[in-house]
Amino acid sequence: MSRALSWLLGGRTPLATxxxxxxxxxxxxxxxVIPALGLIVLSFATNxxxxxxxxEFGFHNYARAFDPKYLPVLLRTFAFAAATTVLCLLIGYPxxxxxxxxxxxxxxxxLVGLMVPFWSSCLVAYYSWMIVLGKEGLINANLIRFGFxxxxxxxLYTPFAILLGLVYFYLPFAVLPLYASLDKVxxxxxxxxxxxxxxRWTAFRKVTLPLSLPGVVAACLLTFIPCLGDFLTVEILGGxxxxxxxxxxxxxxxxxxxxxxxxxxxxxxxxxLVGGLWLYQRWEKA
Amino acid sequence: MKKSRGMGLYCAGVFGFLYLPLAVMFVFSFxxxxxxxxxxxxxxxxxxALFQNTDMMAAMLTSVELALSAAAIAAVIGMLASYxxxxxxxxxxxxxxxxxxxxxxxxxxxxxxxxxxxxxxxAGYELDxxxxxxxxxxxxxxxxxxxxxxRLISLQESSLEDAxxxxxxxEWQAFVKVTLPLARPAIISGALLSFTVSFQDFVTSFFVAGIGIVTMPIxxxxxxxxxxxxxxxxxxxxxxLATFTLIALNAAFAVRPDEASRH
Lengths: 286, 263
Prior knowledge:
The structure holds two protein chains of two kinds.
Chain A: H1 2-10, H2 14-42, E1 46-47, E2 53-54, H3 60-65, H4 71-102, H5 107-119, H6 122-133, H7 138-145, H8 159-183, H9 187-195, H10 200-211, H11 213-228, H12 232-238, H13 245-254, H14 259-285
Antiparallel strand pairs in A: 1-2
Chain B: H1 2-28, H2 45-52, H3 54-87, H4 94-106, H5 109-122, H6 129-158, H7 160-166, H8 171-200, H9 203-208, H10 216-225, H11 231-253, H12 257-260
Helix pairs in contact in B: 1-11, 2-11, 3-6, 3-8, 3-10, 4-6, 6-8, 7-8, 8-11, 10-11
């Protein structure tokens, strides 16, 4: 028994390695690879009556995704994801910079502080934003009480609320990779720039910023791609008028029972994921 | 350092933004009013209502069981896989496999959820607790692997296992007596993160949980959607406190890079 285990751990043959990896491979195969391939196959099938699936293959589900009824959803998803990414970068970069260069002894506390909202349920946070933003919510109630407003403003169920929710949720996703790459910038190189007569701003623009670019790209990827598939934000803060791709997909599976169309939409989302990763790899090699 | 103070204020502002909803939730869970926004006085009645509500307590229990199962599965799978990736000779297609292991982290959860749902339903599998726990284990896996692998790599550098084997230990003995005890903090830290991920996961559960499996996030969601009652604040605060505790525990267990070389 113990000899067999030693053989397994020793890994002198590829077989032992693959046996150790077998559980992980099994999980990846049955819960990731096969489901993804299954969705792609299903996306070419046809929806029958009562949510049954007819195995007649064609591109009609994809054509439908791009027809005028659904195209705005795709465009809106793209626009929200892009806006969220840009805002997260703009808001997050100074935070990451401060963490890495200026925070000193506060750094560890701040890092843990960033992790808490990152790990907290976004459901809870969004619900709380409802309390803050609602017509009878904290902001409106106080503005009215102190006489700044006579009528409540409908913050909720607007693009503003959706963007706020998305930026709120994805901000830590942007800050952490930015911090990781800023932390790798050699301090001596920045010092050298100062010694050679560069001002703060020039040193930042010519040295620190270019060296932190890998983090910027990683942060873009980590906010943009999950954002494309975001589902809960609009479900709670947005409402049906502003459905995004994730909501459309969910509806096809949970309500409309049109699985082939839902699969086609999901395949488009996966194409976005693969495209993003591909661009990233190409950028990394260049 | 004038500039630094301005940036410090800015960071405080961003942190304020991040913590505002959590603080609001916490404060209003003690508010003695049915409608949420006006402060009527301090009360614990929503907490006592919560603990008397069998539905909600059942949801909490389901979530704990689910998170424990997912974390345990992910810890075992992740430990084995990390060991093979770090200690064994690189095999063909290793970098591709490596990339695949981190896909669950990147993949939008909606795609993951509907994929698993479609696969299980088409395969004729009745959606049950086990299927949900396995799906959660998949999203937890990248966290366990990241934690354990980093630890194993730093242990590799200290070559303590090699020393044990030079002194006559078999691979199995070296693993049980040296590697496993030294990797334990990382395994625990990975398991705590997994527990957190699974405990507050909504999207995957929303798609993969069959009828009758109600986790805490699903319960909160349906309460938000179909009639808000103030107990939901108390329930949310419980969820938040669980997260706080887990993150604090994780910070206590997490191995600092400089610590590994001290052994």
